[in-house]
Design brief:
Blueprint: H1 4-35, E1 44-46, E2 52-54, E3 59-60, E4 69-70, E5 73-74, E6 82-89, E7 110-116, E8 131-138, H2 148-158, H3 161-164, E9 165-169, E10 172-176, E11 189-196, H4 203-223
Antiparallel strand pairs: 1-6, 2-3, 2-6, 4-5, 6-7, 7-8, 8-11, 9-10, 10-11
Amino acid sequence: MMNKDIMEQVTQSYKVMLAYHQQVGSLFKVLDNRFASEHNAKKFLPISLNKLFSVCDDEYMFLDNYTLLNRKEPYDSGLPFWLGRFYVNADYLVDNTPIDDYPAKQVQYIAFVWIWVGCDDPNVVDAEEPECWIAIIEPKPTNPETRIYDVAEMIWKWIRIETTAEEESDGWISGRFYPNDFGSELNGFWHVKRFPLKEISSIYHIYKLIINPLTEKLTELEEIQ
């Protein structure tokens, strides 16, 4: 039977989660604008414009510019506990090819910003509160002609922070990918930093916690090649 205490909390809890996802959507809109600024040391552009990856297999798009899609048909899958976006250094983009269609051989590194509600992921130990994860990825797919969008999907599905981490330094957790027979052809490396989402409370913190660390890490990796 229905638990009375739970029933009394459901409506308010649902409203809180809706507000949470609206704030996450607003954060990504701000990030897109700030990442694309010509004033940054590096200009990052999003893979899959106006769409966010979610815990679902298909893209998640918020209302007003985002809609949840499944094979081009809208549907309601509840409230995803992971939402994220991938970004590419604009310096890699040398022609008018859509970003999603660039071959992996032309895009050595991919950045991502992911938001996690903090629980309910079988591959990650529960956190005490929602988190933001940022990363620089060197994916190295087996086939260098693989589309960048398809590479991003592999990263989304197959990164395993807690089982493939190799070291941690200056707040960055580093590890690698292992190809498998279930859809991952990645052979490269990842560098991830995670922190409580509540720390992002202003534009200043967006630069301090997301844009600047990603820019600095990418520059560091490019310089040691």
